[in-house]
Automatic annotation (TrEMBL), chain A:
It comes from the Eukaryota. Interacts with SEL1L. May interact with OS9 and DNAJC10. Interacts with TXNDC16. InterPro entries: Auxin_biosynth/cation_transpt, FAD/NAD-bd_sf. GO terms for biological process: ERAD pathway. Keywords: Endoplasmic reticulum, FAD, Flavoprotein, Glycoprotein, Oxidoreductase, Signal. The keyword Nucleotide-binding does not apply. The gene is Foxred2. Its cofactor is FAD. GO terms for cellular component: endoplasmic reticulum lumen. PANTHER family: FAD-DEPENDENT OXIDOREDUCTASE DOMAIN-CONTAINING PROTEIN 2, FLAVIN-BINDING MONOOXYGENASE-LIKE PROTEIN (AFU_ORTHOLOGUE AFUA_4G09220). This is FAD-dependent oxidoreductase domain-containing protein 2. GO terms for molecular function: flavin adenine dinucleotide binding; monooxygenase activity. It comes from Onychorhynchus coronatus.
TrEMBL record, chain B:
Residues 256-347 form the TXNDC16 third thioredoxin-like domain. This is TXD16 protein. Residues 363-380 have a biased composition (Acidic residues). Residues 1-28 form the signal peptide.
Amino acid sequence: LGLALCVVSGTAFLYHDYCVIGAGPAGLQVAYFLQQAERDYIVFERSHAPGSFFALYPRHRKLISINKQYTGKSNSEFNLRHDWNSLLSHDRRLLFRHYSRDFFPHADTMVRYLEDFASLLDLRVQYNTAIIHVTLERNEQAWNGHYFLLTDQDRKNYKCSSLLVATGTWVPNVVNFPGSEYVEGYETVSINPEDFAGQTVLILGRGNSAFETAENILGVTNFIHMVSRSRVRLSWATHYVGDLRAINNGLLDTYQLKSLDGLLEGDLEDLAIVKDKKGKLHITLRFYLENRNISAGIDSITLPQDELDNFATRAPYDRVIRCLGWKFDFSIYNRSLRMMPGKGNINKYPQIKPSYESRGTRGLFVLGTASHSVDFRKSAGGFIHGFRYTTRAVHRLLENRHHGVPWPSTVYPITQLTNSIIKRVNEASGLYQMFSVLADLILLRENATAFEYLEEYPIGVLAELEMQTGRKAPNGLFVIIMEYGRNFSGADKDVFYYNRAVGEAQHAWQSNFLHPVIYYYKRLPTEREMKLRPPEWPLPRPDAIHHIVEDFLTDWTAPNAHILPLRRFLENCLSTDLRSFFAESCFLFAFTRQKLPPFCQQGYVRMQGLMGSEGLQRHAVQAGLLQDYTLTDFSGDRPPDSHDRSRDQLLRDQVIPVRPLQHLVNAKDE
Amino acid sequence: MSAQGERWVSSFVFLLFCASSIPRPGIAGLRQEPSPQRYFSGLEAGRASLAFFTPHVSPGTQPFLEQIESSAEALQDYGISVVKVNCPKEDISRYCGKENALRKAYLFRGNILIREFPTDALFDVNSVVANVLFALLFNEVKYVETLADLQNIENLLKGKSNMVFAYVPATGTAEHRAVMEAAFVYGTIHQFVLTTEAALLKAAGNDDPDGSSAWLLFCHCQRATDPAQPCRRTALAQPLTLLNIHRHLKLMGAPLVTEVTEDPEKVSTVHLQLGLPLVFILSQRETYEADRRTAEFVAWQLLGKAGVALLSRDLVDLNILHRSNVALKTPDEGVPIQYLVLEDTDEVITLVEDKNKVKQIQEDEEKEDEEEEEEDEDEKENNNQDIQDDQVVEAVSRDKKQELPLEQVLVLTEETFHSSLSEAARTVVLFYASWEAVSLAVLRSYSEVADHLKDTPGVLLSRVNCWDWPGICSQENVTQFPTIKIYGKGEKSVTYDGMWGTEELTSFIILSRVSCPLKLTTMDEAEGFLRGEIPPELSSHHHTSLLGVFSTATGEARETFEEAGNILSGHIMMGMYFEDDSLALSRKYSVSPPALLLARSGGRRVEGIALPKQSVQDLVQMIRYELLDIFPEITVQNLPQYLQLTKPFLILFSDGDISQMESKEMLKLAKGRPQQAFVACWLNLKRTPVGYGILRTYFAAVPSLPVLVWVNLHAEGQVFQFPPEQSITEVNILSWLEKLQAGLEIPSCTLSEEDWKPPLPAYDFLQMMEAAVPELPLHPSHHPGDMPTQHPPQSPGGDTAIREEPSQESMAGKSVSPGRDLRGTAPRLAAREKQGRRHSEL
């Protein structure tokens, strides 16, 4: 753990293998993993404490991430599915439910939690250090062909081999239009409802911050209008937690019940605001202002209602509030790092690959909210309950790339194939939160007698699996992910229609709610196949696919509806028989067949046969899946070596229910 | 192909039938020519003729000539004349001069010789016609031998014309003739492809195992647009006759869906003319597009069985139920058109394929409730994929209501795990998952073990449900369910690796209470150990004792022995003695240290075994082998130990105990010279009744007992029965074995070497998804035939739309699926969902 001091061209650099910018949730999360792996790292935080974003935001101090105290289950992994605030650690004290009993906790609690996380785990965070410039230094020896040179506000320099950017998105989005100087920002607007008493308010934006602001003042204003480019997206219709959450949607209620408040769609770029002599703000269009001087006074400016006397927003406003969200701070990176904004609706995030590495600079990884471009409007990668897993994935990629530590995996015999999948789909939280982004992988060993299980790998880089994880997949693989039904979620979809849930296993592919999907590939998909995958598909066309039917309780352990179809799928992919057998059946097979099913081969033959209690054997006999041979043995009082013809005759005539057993033994192809 | 051309063909065929049915006197069509010269000079260019030459003195018509003569009439229909040419006496020209030339027939076009036929190729009229046409239509009918050739032709034809692919088991047959005759008529319209390779048949999707019957496929290559997909195919379901082929080709040529704008009673199509029913899909303007897709989908399904027409209700004033969506017109005169309300396309197909169902469906429509049940039954009948066929899972789920007596078993949690390990001297922990069948089966045995051991001091039985506490399980490195670990205070835990049975587990726990190996300090103790009296806690438990005797000097051997003891702990009681007087002990049993003394649980006679220098693994293996009996009774529990020897088995199946005589003879045999080569054992059918199952597999019925059987489990799998008339003596068996080895005995049976394949197919969701969402470029780049689940590569439902969005129900027809359901047809069908029962609320 060297804190090396190097001198390059007269400047002193403090060297670390890993530099993390930002001690928010993502920065602390990656610091935890680096600490656990005993890596040389440092976290820079410009504030005096971690989580400075949460010290200010959300302005009205109520987090909208759920903090579920009870699930009725003790499984800690499962419970993380319903805990959206905790970071991952081995320390059970650091579960958010120990910090707050509120379902929607206070933002101050998050700040306190993050402070505890950093201090209890003894993470190396350097506070009061604002990185104001990042540049590169070419060096053949460096891990990535260059070092990262960081400069802080005091002109102190730092040098790192790998740079992990966890700065979040904190630069407020601003729209410039004529009159935008009259607009107040979310970051500074008063949160005291009394300041709004009897006022008419226009809010720009339609996200959670806009609705949160409206919710706060709904009761005291004359009315609130809300304007945005596109329609409101409700998170329960889109299944995306970043869309408008029900907890904030009071204004929708008053709008639809005609209680003066209202929602409008329109492009903010076309907008203009003019102030009249009384200080009231009027909405007009930029179009009318062209070739005109605003300072000439309101009277000379055309208002829409002059031409269209029922123009919707003709009433003047007392205040206009901007709640347009935030974007990534691109300003500190030297051009050579090529930190470019994404295209289209992800332009608030830097461009990164599905491996979370910057598209412009090797060795620079973006973590946390800023990495949300990978799954924007799809999954949870922009939120604590999502990026805590993607951060772990990035750490695993780094361990493999720089330290030769392959992606952690467990090898199981093939008899455990169904079990390992069922276990994970029922409890894994990373698969559940980061649905369609992180996947479990099952890499088959030769002859499909064993397999290797890798957890929570980013499927965007599936084609690079061998290089990224150090694990080989020459014999085919299964990819296990969770998906919502295609065409089910969407801002304009009715997600409450009748018969929305599928109940039968044979129709599982039409499942709408989150359910496990297993893709089977005979060989690893190539990069090209990944690129050409069908739209809306997380993966290219597999050789076979299986959906485990959605479940109301998200409990996929039903023997017939969930496990049996899964087993049939796996069997048909591997062309084998994955049933379990009692020792007696294995005994019979051992004497009557040259080959044994895997369960007998890997269990009974290795002296780990399943004897089964008498009661169970009786049940199996009743089910026609096991034959009771004692029935044929009724010559008890005869001498054992009497060669009795009539007895043979009897045995021959005995009606033996072979048919059901054939069912068991006969493994012919259909 | 133009409609005109088609008409021409049909009239041609009509003429053909007429022509062939006109009776003629004598050997119709046979021409006679007095000499070759006359024959050749009279040949017209472009006209084909089949000639055969007879010597001037006719020795009576040879049988083959008879056949040629009688085929003259048939060939005349194809403009081929059959000519009998008399050879003048002195003629020594090419055709008359040579003896063997006279045994051939010659096919000429104009005066060009096309082919000469040996007489044995022309054995009857069929073979004459087939072979002659085959030769003449060389260009029209492609003969293929390999799949690659077939695919090449198919690919070339895509988007151009259709292909008729015929398989005949042999040339010259009636079917071959029918195909050639059809090719004569249709050869210019469709590409004919012929094969006699049965392998091609299979590749084309016919599963006739021996390829004994002819088969004809119509491949719709003209419509094929995707170069990666094979052309759609429609097989001829009837036997290959000219009439059937003609009918089939006509049907294939008819438009897929006929648009109808007039009264359906007046409509007539090719299908009705050919005696097939016509299905009307009733449409209206709003849903026209979807209905058209449905109609096409149905039409593909019914191709060759019925016609499909799309009837627009807006244009025809029909006095019928508003909800009717399908109509059926049968070719029978006077039968009125039936109007039906059907749910999905399957029903339409059933309607045609099984006309009796029409009534049933109608009745069902009236009784909604009954119908649900009926559907359930249907589903059960044709689908047993959802029936559990795993004996363990099924047994456990049948037992799930039974409450287990688990009072003796402590439940451990994350909080109590570590503290309770320190409570008892020995804690046994079963790690299981409450949803996993095998571990639940073991849990049942475990409760029995707990009952057996409830009075045993110092042992605590407990369990951890890994579904509740995944943390402990991963921390204890439990990766499989179930796992049993035994924790002793301050010792490394031992993982149980024996049979999952009550007896075995109980014995293991009892034995592992004592440290292994146990250090013995006096001669008396060592002797007591061999008698089974020491350690005292095991004196009531039958067990085998193994004593290692070491002189103090042999430290290394002792360490190896101790390590082996750790591994074998629980399986066998091991002791060791290395006091000064160990020599005395070893002398008593005439071994020299280091050595092993083995006292088996039964007789407790002490055997001495020299202990060579070896690795721990080898020692463990050696001890395991030493523990095996010479002539064991084979049981379900102990078979695996003997299987590991990978030797053939010589088994005496006995109903109850074996007689002393047999036992003695077998023991002699087992101890004798060839004992290394096989495992001699016996099986008590009373104790191991599954042995009856083995015997029944070997001999179909259980033979008279006892029966001595030789089974080579590890190679070839042959089973031999010792002649029942011979008595079981060492001498007899040895001579039998010699004969057996020499290959002089016939095996009673050979064990199946079949692989363990999936018992049933899986749901093919990929195909269902593709059928529902055709616009997805999901088609694989590789051949679709190599899917893991077997199904025909073509998906007739390929061109269907996305499943209807429920929110768009009101806008019926905007985006609707004709896939399986007919939801798009107008007016909207009754709301019954066949897509599966769904729950919207509890």
